[in-house]
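Q: Could you fold this chain for me?
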Amino acid sequence: MDQQRGGYIDWYGPGLFFLLLLILALNILDALCTMMILDYGAWELNPLVRSAIGLYGERFWVWKFAIVSICLVLLCIHIKFKPIKTIIVTISSIYIGIVLYEIFLIIYKLKSPP
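A: Sure. Below is the predicted structure, expressed as structure tokens.
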């Protein structure tokens, strides 16, 4: 009965575990692709990440990883609330699109670094 009302649990399914690991892996891949693309002379579109790059240089990925990890822990804790599953699936879908676009840029559009 308590599960139907929502609330906090400490037992998570393998599907959620897979999605959270997927988002973490895509986050790391996004940071690596971003560094490669920046080496080709491009610039970051996301103003928050651009600021982190300005502050931390190539170590911006630590900041990015920490922020995303904290957010994923919070989403995981609140997984029984109805919109959270949709949010996690949406985040993973967006990340897949971003990383695929970055890989496309690296392979097909960017020339060798200066």
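A (continued): The chain has five helices and no strands.
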